Amino acid sequence: MTIMVNKLEYLKETASQTAGPYVHIGLAPKQAGFDIFENNFGNVLAGPKTKGERIRVEGRVIDGSGTPLRDVLIEIWQANAAGKYNHPADRQKKPIDKRFRGWGRGCSDFTTGIWAFDTIKPGAVMGRNDRPMAPHINFWIVARGINVGLSTRMYFSDEQAANARDPVLNLIEWEVRRKTLIATREERKGHVVYRFDINIQGPDETVFFDI
Amino acid sequence: MKLPSEQYGEFYQRDRTIHPPAHAPTYKTSVLRSPQKTLISLQNSLSEITGPVFGADELGPLDNDLIMNYAKTGLPVGERIVVYGYVLDENGRPVRNALVEVWQANAGGRYRHRNDTYIAPIDPNFGGCGRTLTDANGRYFYRTIKPGPYPWRNNVNDWRPAHIHYSISGSGWAQRLITQMYFEGDPLIASCPILRTIPSEAAVRQLIAPLDRNAGIQLDSLAYRFDIVLRGSRATWFENAVQPDDPMQGE
Description:
A: 8-stranded mixed beta sheet; two-stranded parallel sheet; 11 strands
């Protein structure tokens, strides 16, 4: 006689669907053209008392024809200036900055396609197996035509030594593709701006991760 | 060997066979907006197992009441409904304090958005968005009016079935999910090009909310139930490679 084994049951993750063209109504109603919530989530992560170097991160998300997406919504998630995430799962012995959640949400401009975040430069976070990760910001990108939100990371051009040792950048087999994750530092009227264009397709396609 | 800590292991790898492929030509917009190279698989680090935490004090008292949160001169037009459900992980455990955000068209199928030009009129008393946090059991609910179907340019005359958009933030960044909920019995579901990007029929069924006659409010509102499953995480039975252990924690 054959003895059957009880089936091991897990629930299945709910399937993803596109954010659609009107994502702003739900996630950024002011951009959709109306006021409804008293408290709106936005693209300014750093308050006046947040510790760390003030930076602006800006760029475009570009489709396979070279056209910037003008209806994209981006969320970012990052550590504080000390390199600690404001979340109970981060047990590194480093201080939390109560003035910094580390999360922001922004939309591309309906005309230019440019999006931006005002934040602070994150510190380095310990990676797996005690290998430190270079400072980076995690990105999640959704829009009409994107069926499953795209995950990527942004690194900093002035962190060459740390980038060269970063375990995630080094996981990318094709060295030429690593540069797609590195934002370029520039100074504009005394403000530090990191420029980060994201290419969804083409020879310079940005590296996206299955996290 | 250490005692198990019940939380914050890596998330189970995402089963991509239940999600739509990035490149899905029947949904034409996806063609130029889909990566052509493979995704690089990443073992979770702290960057992926952590994520933003939201507080109830950030939401307003009417944020989960789409019938009242934009009412100006009266009530919005349409079928009054309550939508509720549970946010669970793949282990069947409730996801507490998850931020659930919803948006939708009005009863005529028109969105309150500067880019929507459909002929059906804007409802002066309906905004079309709401948000809430799940409770200790992972439960959420909100009140709204049932959205209408509407036409869109894909094939020349495609129609979206009635749907409500969902954005869900769980406890970890890797759980972030965006999706759409559909209504039991809608005849437009079968021909929807966006719904049909999903390769698994079971996964499609999971997006269709059944009518729940018991949960409705008598002589007031019908109710639909929509449960959401986010990725589950591994219990950290053995020493956790995600980060060095801090012996001061958990005491």
